[in-house]
Design a protein that fits this description.
Layout lengths: L1 H10 L2 E4 L2 E5 H8 L3 H10 L9 E3 L2 H10 L15 E3 L1 H11 L2 H63 L12
Length: 176
Amino acid sequence: MENEQNHVIIENKIFIVRGFKVMLDADVAELYGISTKRLKEQVQRNITRFPADFMFELSAEEFKSLRSQIATSKIGRGGRRYLPYVFTEHGVAMLSAVLKSERAVTMSIFIVRAFIKMRELLSTHADLAEKIAEIEQKQKEQGSQLSTVCLIVKQLMTEPDQAKSARKIGFNLNLL
């Protein structure tokens, strides 16, 4: 039960930025039981372990967009003075090596599992979207075929009427 609760808590802290599933530095620090300042210090001391696909700093626009999605305090009211870093799944795994605490290792495992579960869910949604697109395509094809059949039936129904109004063969007494 506790593991399931941890996964739900962690999944709610995962966002998609620049095509990466990421977690904010403050959320990771909270899960690891340390301050954001200490987390950033350790990252800076080991910066070579965090390439751009492991960790990156958000732009002001990205942070503003994320702030509108989550409840964070505004700048000037006890909020952040600097743009946050975000960590990908690989960055979170690297953090456990950098921080070297028992809690960091434990939480890193939970976080990586949450990333994996999220990836599985997204791939399931992608499969469903693909199947829906296939069904829509078949519906369009069948609709087109049905429309053609309706046109042919209408033409068959209207031809006898046109044949009656055509010029009759034979003598016309009114013309003589």
